[in-house]
Design goal:
Blueprint (H helix, E strand, L loop, with lengths): L4 E6 L7 H10 L1 E6 L17 E4 L7 H4 L10 H8 L4 E4 L6 H12 L3 E6 L7 H16 L3 E4 L2 H9 L7 E3 L16 H11 L5 E6 L8 H14 L4 E6 L5 H7 L5 E3 L8 H6 L3 E4 L8 H9 L3 E4 L14 E4 L5 H12 L1 H18 L1 H15 L1
Parallel strand pairs: 1-2, 1-4, 2-3, 4-5, 5-6, 6-7, 8-9, 8-11, 9-10, 11-12, 12-13
């Protein structure tokens, strides 16, 4: 099997793609063009990258627009990158209306490159808004050679707009699951984490996400209050993340059993997952939700909102429960079941660790390689 050449044009480095890019670099002649090093609400530290990549820099012409749309990017360097692009296959990502994406799309199409678009599900629209979105998307999607959907939910959302593709592949966001396995963590550090949060004696739930309304951290806090009142006062919640709602959430979290721990870097996160019993994700909406991949890789049962894309990975009683934010009692009932049934906890842990090996970055890179080899 010949080694194909592939380039990826995307907004900024993110945990959603970093491990995947590392694996793609093993299978392809691979290169990444990042539109910027970071965006206004991102706190990630740039990790060392073992694949070829470059960073563009946004022009000051559109600084005003970036205050409204943080992921709008335009750099004069996009012209040089597109004109000199050597890869046979190019995957575009990020917002389709960003100037960088539009410019790259037209130049690369004229040059005869095989173009794909990597996309989460598109948000629901009705009436005139749906018609306008369809009109804007139609010429862009019509000229693509292939589509990469972040989950089946992404494919379904495009189909609901009437868009169907001859060549497509479903590649959910993914991670290197080895990073979350207990045997790869520092034992002494893990013991320290357990001691600090008393997780040996407390039933610990973990949630993770930006402290913004969409992520539903307020739901998680309310669920823990209900669970402590109806199940046991031995239940606690750890919250990872930073954001503008921190003060209001601290006020809501009156109980000492709720800990807002702030933003954590990538290398710290696996320790919090490994000291927890259950992962709770109550987002009001998420195109995917990589934290579910992280929880699955740790073997944690996932209690996840039905409005989260990665809920498609969850089968009730097998590896977690899909719950409903309109009825928080669905979460409480699941917590009660897991709290009282340690055999079920163990079974779910085993199921999730097996699942993690089939959806990790290495498996998804192989899937993309086979798709391109077999279709073009």
């Amino acid at each position: 099997m010949k080694k194909l050449s592939l380039s990826f044009y995307t907004n900024i480095p993110t945990p959603n793609q970093d491990d995947f890019f590392e694996e793609l670099s093993r299978l392809f002649h691979f290169n990444v063009i990042f539109y910027e090093k970071t965006e206004s609400d991102r706190n990630w530290v740039l990790s060392k990258k073992n694949y070829k990549h470059i960073y563009l820099s946004d022009s000051i012409l559109f600084i005003w627009l970036k205050k409204i749309y943080k992921d709008f990017h335009f750099s004069w360097g996009i012209f040089k990158c597109s004109i000199n692009e050597k890869s046979q296959f190019v995957i575009l990502s990020g917002n389709y209306f960003a100037l960088n994406t539009i410019i790259a799309f037209f130049i690369l199409k004229i040059r005869g490159k095989k173009l794909g678009f990597f996309s989460e599900k598109i948000s629901d629209s009705i009436g005139i808004r749906k018609i306008i979105k369809k009109i804007i998307l139609f010429p862009f999607l019509k000229c693509l050679n292939f589509m990469i959907f972040v989950g089946a939910c992404s494919k379904d959302s495009y189909n609901s707009f009437g868009f169907h593709f001859k060549h497509y592949v479903v590649i959910p966001y993914n991670i290197n699951n080895n990073n979350f396995k207990r045997e790869h963590l520092q034992g002494k550090k893990l013991i320290e984490f357990n001691d600090v949060y008393k997780t040996h004696s407390r039933f610990t739930l973990l949630t993770s996400g930006a402290l913004i309304e969409r992520k539903g951290i307020d739901f998680a806090i309310k669920i823990i209050e209900l669970a402590r009142n109806s199940i046991s006062e031995n239940i606690q919640l750890l919250i990872l993340g930073e954001g503008p709602l921190k003060k209001s959430l601290q006020h809501l979290a009156k109980e000492q059993s709720v800990y807002l721990l702030g933003f954590k870097q990538k290398d710290e996160i696996p320790y919090y997952f490994n000291i927890s019993d259950v992962f709770l994700f109550c987002s009001r909406y998420d195109g995917w939700g990589l934290v579910i991949n992280e929880a699955i890789s740790t073997g944690l049962p996932c209690l996840v909102s039905k409005d989260v894309g990665s809920s498609e990975l969850i089968v009730n009683h097998a590896n977690g429960f899909v719950c409903d934010n309109a009825c928080l009692q669905t979460y409480v009932d699941a917590i009660k079941l897991l709290y009282n049934d340690r055999i079920l906890l163990k079974s779910i842990s085993q199921n999730n660790q097996q699942l993690a090996d089939t959806i990790n970055s290495a498996a998804m890179a192989i899937k993309l390689n086979l798709f391109l080899q077999n279709n073009f």
